[in-house]
Amino acid sequence: MKTTTTEQALRLGSKVVYQIYIKSFQDTTGNGMGDLRGITTRLDYLADLGVDYLWITPFFPSPQNDNGYDVSDYRAVEPMFGTMEDFEELSREARKRGMSLMLDMVFNHTSTEHEWFQRALAGDPKYLAYYKFVDATPDATAEDPGEPPTNWESKFGGNAWEYVPSLNKWYLHLFDVTQADLDWDNPQVRAELVDVLRFWRSKGVDAFRFDVVNLVSKPATWENDYEGDGRRFYTDGPHIHEYLQELVREGDIDGLLTVGEMSSTSVDNCIRYSNPACHELSMAFSFHHLKVDYPNGEKWALMEPDIAKLREIFATWQERVTEGGGWNALFWSNHDQPRPNSRFGAVATREDWKRSSEMLALCTHLMRGTPYIYQGEELGMTNPDFTSIDQYRDVESINYYQILQERGHSPEDAFRIVHERSRDDSRTPVQWDDSPHAGFSSVEPWIGVSNNCHWLNAAAEVDDPDSVYSFFKRLISLRKEEPIIQGGSIEFMESPSEKVIAYRRTLGHECLLVQCNFSCEQQPALVHTGGTVLVSNYDEPGNDTTLRPWEATATIWR
Ligand code: GLC
Questions:
Q1: Which CATH number describes the domain made up of 115-181?
Q2: Is 52 a catalytic residue?
Q3: Which residues contact 418 (CB under 8 A, 6 or more apart)?
Q4: How confident is residue 4, by pLDDT bands cut at 50, 70 and 90?
Q5: In the CATH hierarchy, which fold is given to the domain comprising 489-557?
Q6: Which residues line ligand 1 (CB under 6 A)?
Q7: Does the pTM of the predicted model rise above 0.70?
């Protein structure tokens, strides 16, 4: 096990992944939406930052009800994002600059516009068996379909089953009603998905992200969930490991860089997903650390983040996954999460904005695992200052704005919650410069640009050695230079304060102490002597006993 772990750390621990939400990255056609060629035009910027892999969110044909996570053809390019030639050019140009593309495989469900679902709707038994269809009672009608097969909730609100009158059947959709869950118990479905992987492999793709992939194995019987929303029946479901092993083996992707999005998973399952001996994936995204500001687990309610709990979750996942020979994806942000500095830091003054953005970056980038940077995070982009629900585009936000009011919240209150929690918080266009539409597009973009683009933009940051961008660049190059960051063991320290997270990395005789102050006040530091500062978000040395507001410092002993 030890040798595998070292090999794993060498292979994965020196890499950094950058996530591109294509629709908001760079528009080159003047339609207000990003596209593949837009990514190609920004490759020099990404190479300068120093990242290794570019995860591109789905650019396949799609009605875009969930911005591309509702795929209607897995083997083509959505015309609004470009052509297959554009993809090939992007892939070639990225490779020239030492970067690889990571494709986003949405295999839990297809769009209801996918040919398979359309054939199912036409009554073709082969394709009916591709999805989770369940018979309705004989007397069901469109007006009165009766009770759905279970009381499970869709992640985007409402019941997770939809009735189809022409078939007198229900189908399962854990997400939007236009995203029908595939039946992974059907070997033909699994073979189709393997074929999709092979198709992209033949185009030279050598990294994959798998969307909500721990939800694909559903239980054999349908039961109501009287304790929750149903997730306990299908999360890390009965055949999940077997199905993943088969996909990896048959798709010939064992040993490539792969990551699974593992919704509400457990540490033990994540170890199995990511331990090389299990031949599943290279690493897993888990989300427990991004729920420390959900009161009683409720996303659509507000509270201050609980930093002591955050520390405990990091400690558990970092230490236990390491012990189990697994590997973590390190991240604060993606296209489903609000911006981390608006959430765990402070953005009201420029001083706090800069320090807290950098503190958060240092905190995860020096952990054991592979860091992921979500577009704009390296600039310190914040949640947008939207003032009306009409500015939001996401199906989940729009649904919950209504649901919250149905639950008794005033429109103002519902708006305040959506404003803090919306997935659109991170989906506003990348702020490239201070020209109209922030250099993202020549026309009004599909979603509004944040007002702070006048001062917060790439043009202002790339050449400034003291910018958030330059700080990210430094963290990335440190990871490449320092074996202790790539593969050192990790141990979390007792915190001297509820607002401080501290951990120690060790490799041979070397030791790296990381301390992060998650507050705008001074906090006590861990007692230590000697060592030299490897990286800090303060230029002037502090004293050994105090952490300054939002200070993050890594001290090394060699
Ligand atoms: C994942 C994606 C999210 C999408 C959902 C359904 O959570 O990250 O954007 O809505 O899966 O595909």
A1: 3.90.400.10
A2: no
A3: 389, 392, 397, 400, 401, 404
A4: low
A5: Immunoglobulin-like (2.60.40)
A6: 66, 69, 106, 175, 211-212, 261, 335-336
A7: yes
